[in-house]
Each structure stands twice: as C-alpha cells, then as structure tokens.
Amino acid sequence: MRTVRCYDGCGQEVRGLGLRAANRQGERATVVMERLQNARDRTLDARQGGARTGAALERLAHHEVQLRQVLTSCHEVLHGERSYKEIDWKLVRTTITEADRFVTLLRRRP
C-alpha cells in the first residue's frame, strides 16, 4: 500500500485504498476554494451593488458550502473516518468543476 501525506497540511500520513484519488480531489477543491474566496473579495471590492452582484455573491456562497462538504468528505476518507466507497466521486468532481467554471465566468464579467 502506498503512503500519502494529507493535502490539508496536517502532516499526517495516510494509507489505504483510493487515497491518492481522495487526496487529489482534496487538493483540487482547496485550489478552487481559494479562487472562490478571491472572487468573493473582488466582487465585494467592486461595490457595484445591484441584483447581479447580489446573485453572484449568493452563488459564490452556495459553491463555497458545497466545496466545504467536499473537503470534509475527502478529509474523512484520508483519515479513515469514512470508506472511499461511501463517497460519490463523480459528484465530487462535478461539484469542483462547476465551482471552478463559475469563478472563471465571474472573471470574464465586466
């Protein structure tokens, strides 16, 4: 079995089936979460107000909640609190991809 260091920086080495995939998804989700938080800060700094900004902030918050759930699931798998098979990894990938696309769309918006 291969030993993997947890993506969240706790330093713990974790072992088991499917951990490389869980670790990779955790790393991806962490990067997208940082992008979401930066996008939220930029949106708030712009102070344009209006319905568009409010809707964007609501969707950012929605994606942030979903990514927190993904990060929690990945962490639980890596630390043996949940089985790799309990997680719907297709949903995890979709959640991360949708959040990433939304941040990209926000950057293109004038």
Kindly describe this structure:
With 110 residues, this protein is mainly alpha-helical. The protein has one domain. It is 70% helix and 5% strand. It contains three helices and two strands; from the N terminus they run ββααα. It has a two-stranded antiparallel sheet. A hairpin with a 7-residue loop joins β1 and β2. It is elongated and about 50 Å long. The N and C termini lie far apart (50 Å). The model has no long low-confidence stretch (mean pLDDT 86).
User: What is the domain tally?
Assistant: 1
Range of helix content: over 70%
Structural class: mainly alpha
Number of helices: 3
| Widest sheet, order of strands | 1-2
Strand segment count: 2
Principal-axis shape equals elongated
Average pLDDT score: 86
Largest sheet: 2 strands, antiparallel
Q: Unreliable stretches, pLDDT < 50, 5 or more residues?
A: none
Instruction: Supply Rg.
Output: 16 Å
Beta-strand portion reads: 5-15%
